[in-house]
Amino acid sequence: GCGAQKKKVSQFEEDHGIIVGFSQIGAESAWRTCNTRSVQDAAAEKGVQLVYANAEQKQENQIKALRSFIAYQVDVIVFIPIVTDGWDNVLQEARDAGIPVLVTDRKIAVEDQSLYAGFIGTDSLKEGRTAGQFVLEKFAAKRESFGQTKEPITIVELFGTEGSSVANGRAEGFREVLKSYPEFQIIYSKSGDFLRSKGYELAVEFLEMYDDIDVIFSHNDGMTLGAIEAMEERGLRPGKDIVIITIDAQQEAIDALREGKVNCVIECNPKTGPEIIKLAQRLAAGETIPRLQYVHEEVFYETDNLSLIEPRGY
Ligand code: AHR
Fold this sequence. Notes:
alpha/beta; six-stranded mixed β-sheet; 45% helix; elongated; binds alpha-L-arabinofuranose; SBP_2_dom; Peripla_BP_I
């Protein structure tokens, strides 16, 4: 009967744990690699069997991975959507198969919100606003003189992956804060896909194009570190000749902050594995989970007591 069958299932779960399909974007940054490791470690610790798929930066690969999880009948799907749009159909298939879906790190836009159980991740809009507020304060003096000099504060933006919720949120929050201050001008904004190599390439380009850049707002540390390299090759002093704001807070960015090469580091927290696995276990047990959960994130300023920052671990 029912009871016997139930016992069998729970016996299986005791021996093997639940099976979670984990669709990761790829390995574009140190942040991403740390995030993958965090989920894998947490799964191993809790005896959760993780089926890991690396989409190598392609949405179509992610959709294929989700379909294979459905065919395999995993208990729960955890996925990090590379871009916001285009998930309705495959999520409908997961729903038809009765598999709950946890979205993490990046958000999705679907017509039917009930196509996924919940989201846990970063608040990218807030990150962008924090960056905007830092720039406002940092340039208080230059802003005052703008009335007479009409000399704008020029900003270069290194944009993350186009169409991703995190890049869009960071860009939007930043603009929202600065939009009522005409003294700020974004003179260049291009996607470096969160890659260090592209951050370097874009910096080579914009440093060639403009002589008077005041600020670089970079959507992640990888691109920032590439841009710093390009600046130094040109004999420029990052953090002094150009103010730099970066997002993630990997160890190399904190080191750059300590060396005065970066002015503000806004944390995006990759170590969400334990929380993700806990939520997946709850979903597998048929429980509901919160619709929206933001993880704890800090901001590190050049004026902070930087000796107090704990090693970042990645
Ligand atoms: O989605 C989070 C972003 O993706 C991180 O800021 C970036 O480093 C990563 O590649």
